[in-house]
Amino acid sequence: MSTPVVKIENLVKRYKELIALDHFSLEIEEGEIFGLLGPNGSGKTTTINCMLSLLSYDKGEVEIFGKKMSPDNYEVKKDIGVVMQNVAVFDELTVYENIDYFCGLYITDKEKRAKLVEEAIEFVGLEDFKKFYPKKLSGGLLRRLNIACGIAHKPRLIIFDEPTVAVDPQSRNKILEGIERLNREGATVIYTSHYMEEVEQICTRIAIMDKGKSRAIGTKDELKKLIRNTETISIEVAKPSDDDMKEISSLPHVYETAYENSKLVVRYSGGKHNLIRLMNLLSDKQYNMGRVYSEIPTLNDVFLEITGTALRDSE
Ligand code: ADP
Ligand code: MG
User: Fold this and answer.
1) Which residues are near ligand 1 (CB < 6 Å)?
2) Per-residue pLDDT tens for 231-264?
3) Global pTM?
C-alpha cells in the first residue's frame, strides 16, 4: 500500500483532568475526502490542532506525507492548507489583499501568485467582492473568504474545520461543491462536521468521534452495516392497544417498537416485506392509517447505536 497522507497513532491530549483525545488513531490515504463526524466537544478541532503541531500533546505520533510532523516542519506545512473553524482574516485588508497575503506566505513569484489569487476568488465566487473589507461581508461570504485564504496556494492536503456552521444554504452548497472540486483536482481533504448529512454527501470515509475516541471508521455503507437497523417504518395511526403492540413486536425482523408523536415507529433488522406485513396487520385490525414512511438508516442511526446518544444535526 502507498504511504498514507496522514497517519495518527494513539494520540492522547489532556486539558488538566479532561481527556480531549483518548488514544485516537487514524490513517488517511491520498485522494480521500475524510470526514471527522462528532458532536460539539468530541475532539475534532483538538485532533486538527495536534495533527498540525499547533498544540502539544501528551502521547502519540503524527506523520504527514510519510514524515514526522513537528512545529518547525515547514517542508510538510507548505503543502497543507487549513480552513479553521473560527474565521481568521485581517480586517484592514480587502478580500483580494487577504487572499494575496495568505498565498504570499507560500508563493513568492508575483505573477504566479496573482493567477492563484484570481483562481481562488473565482473558486469561492467572490468576484464581485474583491475590494470589500471583511466587515462588509455576510457570514457566508466571510466563510468563503476564509476558505479562499486557506486554499489559494493549491496545497496537497486541505483541512476544513466545520466550514459550514451558521452559513446560509447557498454558501453552504457552494462550499461543499468547492470541496468536491478541490478533491477532483487532486487534493486530499479532511472535513470535520457535526452535520451528518454533509459528511454523508461528500466524504469517502468517515470516522465517528465521541468523547475523544474514534468509535468507528469506514465508508458510509460500511458504517451502516455495523448496526442492526436496516429499516425504520413509521405510520400515522391511533395508538395501538398493548396487545396489538405486542403482536407488532413479534412480527419477523422487528427489534423495537414505539409510539411517538402520533406515529407508530417500528425498527427492523433485515427482512424484505416488512411494510406489507405491518400494514396488513394494522388493516386486519381496522386501524385507519395516515401517512406511511420507510427509512433506511442514516449516520445518525449509526451514531445512536454505537454511542448510545443522538447526534443532533439541527443546531
Ligand atoms: P470539537 O471540535 O469536536 O467541538 P474540541 O476539540 O474543540 O471539540 O474540544 C474537545 C474537548 O476539549 C471539549 O470537551 C472541550 O471543552 C475541551 N477543550 C478544548 N479546548 C480546550 C482548552 N483550551 N482548555 C480546556 N479544555 C478545552
Ligand atoms: Mg471544533
Assistant:
1) 15, 18, 20, 38, 40-46
2) 999 999 999 999 999 999 999 999 999 999 999 9
3) 0.87
